[in-house]
Specification:
The complex is a heterodimer of chains A (258) and B (513). Chain A is an alpha/beta fold and 258 residues long. Chain A contains 6 helices and 12 strands. A 7-stranded antiparallel β-sheet of chain B has the order 15-12-14-13-17-18-16, sandwiched between helices. In chain B, strands 5-6-10-8-9 form a 5-stranded antiparallel β-sheet. In chain B, strands 1-2-4-3 form a 4-stranded mixed β-sheet, with helices on both faces. Chain B is globular. The chains are: A alpha/beta (258), B alpha+beta (513). The interface between A and B is medium-sized, with 22 and 24 residues. Chain B: One of its GO terms (molecular function) is D-lactate dehydrogenase (cytochrome) activity.
């Protein structure tokens, strides 16, 4: 059984339960004073890496590295990943002002640079972030690295250098075979992430955390896309109640539906 | 028998015995009028048809929902539910009922735990469900004025959008009405931080038993002019009037919230963790709850949400919540606290929620304990105020006495303890295969011994209702109980407001002065 060194991507996003609001300038969603957490699909990615280590053993899974590209507060998400069981963390720091403009292509390039430094043979990312729903970073990274990719994974099996991944697709489930090194992106049903327990949370504080900037990595993260405006969807107009079938038919007719 | 073998209980409404039959010593007051067609015609003339549920062949199930309580222990025989939308309508209805001597049961969300919200005989149910308008909110003084039928969770959601929150939080928040909360002086999980409704209610609008509207909907924090009559209605359980409007002091919603669940090896450690949390978390502590391993097993067996809760080998668990305005400040305090209690061996292990979803998941374990008990069998809930050092000894004593009587295991399935440690309030559930006076008598005499010895209360927060009406005379000095009776007579000389409850199994005459 060959060794596995796993790199897992983490993104700081607005918490899934928060009711999101558009800012007054209609240029973006309001993020100030709003609860942020680890992207749920990334949490699943960390959980999967840890389960691989528990299943295959520490002799096979040599190291799990959690990486994030974001502002200084993103370190909170790295601490969550370390508390769940990652061995060390890498923070690619981006300023608060440029974070909203950091796009999947930029992130993919930063991750490629980290891959070239750390030489993992498995990269697990969440299938998409719940803020932009882009679902691009994993695919772009695989393209830049020229590695195979298995996206929307709901089951992962590793045997030596071979990978068998079941993917959730529109038609049902598709199982594909691949080889390491590979990029995998996680879907919801892959696993249920664990809670972080106190002893692990305390151990996590002593785990190494290295910082880089995009300049350190020689990566240009200039955005290629510009967001012009962000608006709420149109408010739903109220319906009306009818008292009888005849009434329903006449209302449908006057609405041009019949 | 272990908790794995618990038979799940599904009782149909029709199988619930009428309360009037179970409590056969209660007699219907012959002075009360029986509902007649004339009365129904009158109500139909002052209320729209959708505000009335009149007994008929087609609406038995709907009527049953009002006649049966959440515990599925009490069942009334009301033939009429009225659902007024305005205070004026309530006044009209009550005035009429007082003149005709028709008995009334005020009902909010029908989530009460002592049988106080359902009729015994044919009392008319006045439901507050249509009194659901939020009237006014002032963000500077943080005061909210609303109708009494507003659901607690809906009020909290409304305040959330305005940077505020309700100063109380209870498991039934998705169903209970704020009027009912006030009428029962509800406590809940945030009591340790915000205190009692006696402090946070700034004003009330009440329809008195003769139909008079008492409007004291003030928003003033301070007003020392005269006797504070509104305090009488808080905790009066619908016996002095119907609350139609509430003015309450909301709190600022926390910018930073943390939830941790700890595993502990003894109740003494639970107490020590609580003391340490007061010392080190102090002003940011917003909840401190506990439950025992049996409560956890009950939730894991009967409800889905605890499936991935990883701690299960500890005899006790404590849920700590902190709330404050500065995340870094609160996290530092919480880290220091957790390191301290781990180092001292007070806490063996724990979980800190990493996002809102995990916080909800941890809370759902504590909030699910009563529901889980109901699914496991016939559930009897006890709600006791007692000094913290002896709190769990009651549970241990009850179990030991049931074992000595050969009742523990069969028919008693489980006895578990949980509750608001911070307020000295124990909840104890006895889960049995079926109702048994022998078990109840043994349990209650054991509890009485402890509360008498330590001057505790047999109803910390659930109130008296019907189930605990026997305790009033033993809980308070005769002088006080006599004053209560006199006040009841002043407000309600015909005794139509929620009769047969609150005062101990009284025949109607003895209420008169």
């Amino acid at each position: 059984m060959s060794n596995l060194k796993i790199l897992v991507g983490c993104k700081r996003v607005i918490d899934f339960t928060v009711k999101v609001r558009v800012n007054a300038q209609k240029t973006a969603v309001e993020t100030a004073n709003v609860k942020h957490s680890l992207n749920p699909f990334d949490e699943i990615a960390i959980e999967e890496a840890i389960r691989l280590k528990e299943k295959l053993g520490g002799d096979v899974v040599k190291e799990i590295i959690a990486v994030t590209c974001g502002p200084s507060k993103s370190q909170e998400q790295l601490r969550t990943a370390l508390a769940m069981g990652a061995d060390r963390a890498i923070h690619v720091e981006v300023s608060d002002e440029s974070y909203p403009k950091l796009q999947p292509l930029g992130v993919a390039k930063l991750l490629k640079a980290i891959v070239e430094k750390e030489k993992p043979n498995l990269v697990i990312l969440g299938k998409q972030a719940i803020d932009d729903d882009a679902s691009q970073t994993g695919q772009m990274l695989a393209g830049l690295l020229n590695w195979p990719q298995a996206t929307f994974a709901s089951k992962i099996d590793i045997n030596g250098e071979s990978l068998k991944v079941t993917r959730e697709v529109d038609g049902g489930l598709e199982t594909i075979g691949s080889k390491l090194p590979s990029v995998i992106t996680t879907d919801l049903r892959l696993n249920e992430p664990r809670f972080a327990t106190l002893p692990n949370i305390m151990k996590a504080r002593k785990k190494p955390l290295t910082k880089f900037t995009p300049q350190d990595l020689n990566v240009d993260i200039t955005p290629r896309l510009e967001t012009i405006s962000v608006t709420d969807p149109p408010t739903r107009k109220g319906g009306g109640k009818v008292d009888s079938v005849d009434d329903l038919i006449s209302k449908l007719k006057s609405a041009g539906a019949l | 028998m272990t908790t794995k073998d618990i038979p799940k209980k599904n009782i149909s409404n029709e199988e619930i015995r009428f309360t009037a039959d179970v409590h056969s010593n209660l007699k219907r007051n012959p002075n009360f009028k029986k509902l007649s067609q004339d009365d129904i015609l009158y109500f139909q003339s002052i209320l729209p048809s959708n505000a009335l549920t009149i007994e008929s062949d087609s609406n038995q199930e709907e009527l049953m929902a009002y006649n049966v309580d959440w515990l599925r222990i009490h069942r009334g025989k009301s033939k009429l539910v009225v659902k007024p939308k305005t205070t004026a309508q309530v006044s009209n209805i009550v005035k009429y009922c007082n003149e005709k001597k028709l008995a009334i049961v005020p009902q909010g969300g029908n989530t009460g735990l002592v049988g106080g919200s359902t009729p015994i005989f044919d009392e008319i149910i006045i439901s507050t469900k249509n009194l659901n308008q939020i009237r006014e909110f002032d963000p500077i003084s943080s005061t909210l004025i609303c109708d009494s039928g507003c659901i607690l969770e809906i009020l909290d959601d409304y305040l959330a959008e305005r940077g505020h929150m309700m100063p109380l939080d209870i498991g039934s928040k998705g169903s209970c009405h704020i009027g009912g909360n006030v009428a029962t002086n509800a406590g809940g999980v945030r009591y340790v931080r915000y205190g009692s409704l006696h402090g946070t209610i700034l004003g009330l609008e009440v329809v008195l038993p003769d139909g008079t509207i008492l409007d004291n909907l003030s928003t003033l924090r301070k007003d020392n002019t005269g006797y504070d009559i509104k305090q009488l209605f808080i905790g009066s359980e619908g016996t002095l009037g119907i609350i139609t409007g509430v003015s309450i002091l909301a709190s600022r919603r926390h910018k930073a919230i943390s939830v941790a669940v700890l595993g502990l090896n003894s109740f003494e450690n639970v107490q020590n963790a609580f003391i340490t949390s007061k010392e080190m978390l102090t002003e940011i502590l917003s909840a401190f709850e506990f439950w025992d391993d049996k409560s956890l097993k009950m939730v894991k067996t009967h409800l889905d949400q605890s499936a991935k809760f990883p701690l299960d080998e500890y005899p006790f668990y404590a849920l700590i919540e902190t709330g404050g305005s500065n995340k870094d400040h609160d996290e530092e305090k919480l880290s220091e606290f957790l390191e301290t209690v781990m180092e001292k061996g007070i806490v063996k292990n724990g979980i800190i929620a990493q996002d809102n979803t995990q916080m909800k998941s941890l809370w759902s374990i504590r909030e699910g304990i009563p529901d889980a008990g109901m699914k496991a069998g016939s559930a009897y809930f006890y709600d006791i105020s007692i000094p913290i050092p002896v709190m769990y000894k009651i549970v241990e004593d009850v179990i030991s006495k049931l074992k000595n009587a050969g009742l523990y295991g069969k028919p008693v399935i489980d006895v578990h303890g949980f509750g608001h440690v911070g307020d000295g309030n124990l909840h104890m559930s006895i889960i049995t295969e079926s109702y048994s006076p022998k078990i109840i008598n043994l349990v209650e005499s054991c509890i009485n011994e402890w509360t008498e010895k330590y001057k505790g209360s047999l109803s910390a927060e659930h109130g008296i209702g019907l189930m605990k009406s026997k305790i009033l005379e033993n809980s308070k000095p005769k002088v006080m109980v006599d004053i209560m009776r006199k006040m009841k007579y002043i407000f309600d000389p015909n005794g139509i407001m929620n009769p047969y409850k609150f005062f101990p199994y009284q025949k109607y005459e003895e209420l008169k002065v």
